[in-house]
## 1
Amino acid sequence: MKPTDTTTYRALNTYTKLMRAAESVTSRVGRNMAAADLTISQFGVLEALLHKGPLCQRDIAAKILKSTGNITLVIDNLEKRGLVRRERINEDRRYLTIQLTDHGLELIHEVFARVEAAIVAEMKVLTHDEQETLGTLCKKLGLREGRG
Amino acid sequence: MKPTDTTTYRALNTYTKLMRAAESVTSRVGRNMAAADLTISQFGVLEALLHKGPLCQRDIAAKILKSTGNITLVIDNLEKRGLVRRERINEDRRYLTIQLTDHGLELIHEVFARVEAAIVAEMKVLTHDEQETLGTLCKKLGLREGRG
DNA sequence: GTCATATTGTTTAATATTAAACTATATGAT
DNA sequence: ATCATATAGTTTAATATTAAACAATATGAC
């Protein structure tokens, strides 16, 4: 093999493993969301509101990497279930502030705890040092322009 | 912070970075598929056929981690574009063998080369050793039961 | 003030995805 | 041979997602 070939081979291999790991972990962790009848996106929205407080839809879209059109629907569905509330802001009436309701807060609190536990369990196959290393390497890949 | 807290914190942090890296890289690499009017799933199917030869739909579904129902549609669309061909097997008439057409082979050959180059470019932010390390750590996370 | 431009959120149309019900075929026990 | 079970693929209904067009509101130049 020429050096280029081994370089390519290594890159493809690493890429594949990264993707598989992400899919695999997402799928297992996601079961805890599905158990509470939350999609990954719905969980993402509620989790953002839990940890950042009330947000407008645009900020939510940016946070969970989805289109604003999609967020409209996700919030619609959460609103129907009484988990969040929309509130028009008077200083700038284009904005809507999305807030957790009491029920929403209670639910995401509980589901987040389970998800958190699942993530900790997933990561337990790695030592602390390995986790730090993985985080550092992933961060290098994540940084860069472009959606995502 | 109690030890449990730092453990949890580290796990969540690592998880987030893993997810961001995967999304980010997928999104950038995926542009090369979109440029040829291929969805990620369509690319996945063609790529599997390119590197593994003819496959039945069930195997394709397993390979790209999608439902068999979805594969039916993906293959339908590829067939409409004349990129693959379905062929009933006579030894067991439940099976369909999916083959690349000449046109399909030509296309995936070209698109795969671009995707490959994109992946190599993505991975260039990591040294060879770092790639090996990332691969090893991801593999530990990926292994386990469960869809994915 | 008025108009051009930006921005927030909504709607629409197209596509993707899944789970579950279904059809057709094969296999194995009796 | 027959029947129960399993398997491959399809269909259907529900949901998710995006891009693009759109409505409402804000901002800034003049």
Note: Chain B has one domain: 19-142.
## 2
Amino acid sequence: MTEGLFLFNSRTRKKERFVPIKPGHAGVYSCGPTVYSAQHIGNMRPYLFADLLVRALKAQGLKVTHVINVTDVGHLTDDADAGEDKMEKAAAQSGRRAEEIAAEYTEQWLVDRRRLGIPDPDVLCKATDHIPEQIEMIRQLEAKGATYRISDGIYFDIAKFPRYADLARLDLAQQEGANRIEEVTEKRQSADFALWKFAEKGVQRQQEWDSPWGVGFPGWHIECSAMSTKYLGETFDIHTGGIDHLPVHHSNEIAQSETALGIDRWVNVWMHEEFIDFQGEKMSKSLGNVYILQDLVDSGLLPLSFRYFFLQAHYRKQQTFTDDAMAAADRGYRRLVAQAQALSEDGGVDEQAVASHGAEFRAAMNDDLNAPRALAAATQIVRDESLSPATRRALLTECDAWLGLDLLTAALPQAIQEKDPRIDRLVAARQAARQAKEWAEADRIRDELAAEGVTIEDTPDGPIWRRSEP
RNA sequence: GGCGCCGUAGCCAAGUGGUAAGGCACGGGACUGCAAAUCCCUGAUCCCCGGUUCGAAUCCGGGCGGCGCCUCCA
């Protein structure tokens, strides 16, 4: 009945069966990072989500082209059209070149993605590498009469695009945000946005280019329109991004793309992931309460435990991050992997059982990427004793293609075997006491070590020890 | 003021009309000299009030509470 992948389309506010424009192929564009500083774990949800989507598309047998942009110019600090450029600001503060900063944080972002099991995108495009494309699109808009010039730049006139409010279902007359900020007063409507910003007189920017309108730099929104169109065509399948982008950034993208290209439907499916709530407020660079992946690793957690944490909630719901929830995810992930890897190759693979017992998992994922439900199904498979170990392995291999948790292949770090002769000697002494059945002495040594945070674990191969918490 | 999300067991979180997935913790059990580690078992009628219905966590109305966007932000 419900064959195929169903996705929630923000444009129609409905779950719809995904049908690619070009049979057998799906084009996906994801709004990428602004690389003036480190990406924190909240910033990683969009990429975990996009990866989940890409994996689901591939599981349908589709070939996927995934494009992500890197914003390395033009993203302003305060107002969309009146603040400082974040890249320039970061460069000024650190005394470094903007390109150098962008390269560093782009690389860190890619490394973190890989640690989370996210493959690199097929196309990773930088705004600064596509200035001509952006200028060209602005020229097209100008030719269509959708732009106007004011003292600080070239702007898009949303009055020329009647569908402007459709995506976000905005009531533009009632939007009052503009009243709370210092705005570019020359704009015709407050929702108009900059396409090209002029370099300020007397200010030497690191990043500026010539254009038909004068020296300056592109507005933030135009890069996504220009680059997605370049790599995916004038109409493409799916565009993803944070829910916060829906009313402004994506409304702007649609306005400029559909106007410049002269088309009615630039993107078929818009998908937006919700925020992670960090015990009461969002984590954001602006608020300064950032927490990067390495911080998690430093506290003894596995990167893929964060992926597991992400998979425990649906992407369209705000997810609460707390240290306890993260620790719970870490334990859950380690246990699941240990159980999966403990499965033998015995019993042969029952292909029929693979087809039938994987149904719930596939149905969950195909229902708008319901990862929590799918993860529960995978967990049941690991522990389903009615299936042979080999069959369970086969099922888990299939599940993991969607989940990306490396269930059967992850190398779990064992108890850290530190070198400490003094502790080794005490552990050996306890073991000797145990063998002599001198329990009081053995327990005394164990308590002594416990008091300094060392836990002894007796295994079939003898005792090992580890420090409880760093 | 406008647009939008959410409120389910101690914590995280599925479920959107037929009588509550899963994970973690807690408790119980197995194992152990006792522990640790591991494995097994165990818990909720769904923020409040009213309505619709044979039947609601699930639909409608009204509250209370949390969060996001409208300004850079995933």
Note: Residues 41-59 of chain A form the longest helix (19 residues).
